[in-house]
């Protein structure tokens, strides 16, 4: 098992960053996410937005890794649940793969909150737990997955930055996200 964590500070208010985060996939800068389906989206009695999505992803595992894992499959599905709390100004997103689970599990958690000392900037804390199951080279494969996640995380942060810079005319209000 490998645990990977990172933190990033966006120089924009929480509301702006959250709007960009909700629109980050699919995106040509990160072709690993092939598609996104909203399975359920609703507001709870406390005004929090709950979203359940299914992501179709391409892990792009090298041939040697596929041989070690004993699979040719590289397209995977990921279930994602997010909660946006506009009162607390917090977005928490948890995702996990639902294919290849007999070989690999990737559990990821992202939290977006205003910086405690400067509410005009937003802190993203990201953590992933990667476990390769039943392999003698599991530590090596877990390390490869961590490096891949780190590279993809940099791309996603760039995507969000570009979405923020696209300007207010391209941003949606939080309540309109219900109808995506």
UniProtKB/TrEMBL annotation:
Residues annotated as domain PRELI/MSF1: 1-172
A GO cellular-component term linked to this record: mitochondrial intermembrane space
Domain of life: Eukaryota
Coiled coil: none
Protein name: Protein slowmo homolog 1 isoform X1
Organism listed in the record: Austrofundulus limnaeus
């Amino acid at each position: 098992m490998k645990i990977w964590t990172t933190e990033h500070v966006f120089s924009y208010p929480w509301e702006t960053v959250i709007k960009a985060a909700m629109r980050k996939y699919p995106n040509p800068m990160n072709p690993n996410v092939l598609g996104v389906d909203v399975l359920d989206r609703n507001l709870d009695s406390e005004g929090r937005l709950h979203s359940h999505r299914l992501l179709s992803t391409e892990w792009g595992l090298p041939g040697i890794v596929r041989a070690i894992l004993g699979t040719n499959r590289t397209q995977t599905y990921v279930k994602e649940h997010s909660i946006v709390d506009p009162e607390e100004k917090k977005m928490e997103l948890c995702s996990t793969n639902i294919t290849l689970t007999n070989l690999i599990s990737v559990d990821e958690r992202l939290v977006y909150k205003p910086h405690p000392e400067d509410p005009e900037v937003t802190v993203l804390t990201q953590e992933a737990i990667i476990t390769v199951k039943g392999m003698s080279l599991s530590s090596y494969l877990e390390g490869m997955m961590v490096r891949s996640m780190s590279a993809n995380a940099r791309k996603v942060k760039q995507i969000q930055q570009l979405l923020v810079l696209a300007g207010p005319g391209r941003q949606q209000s939080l309540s309109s996200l219900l109808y995506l």
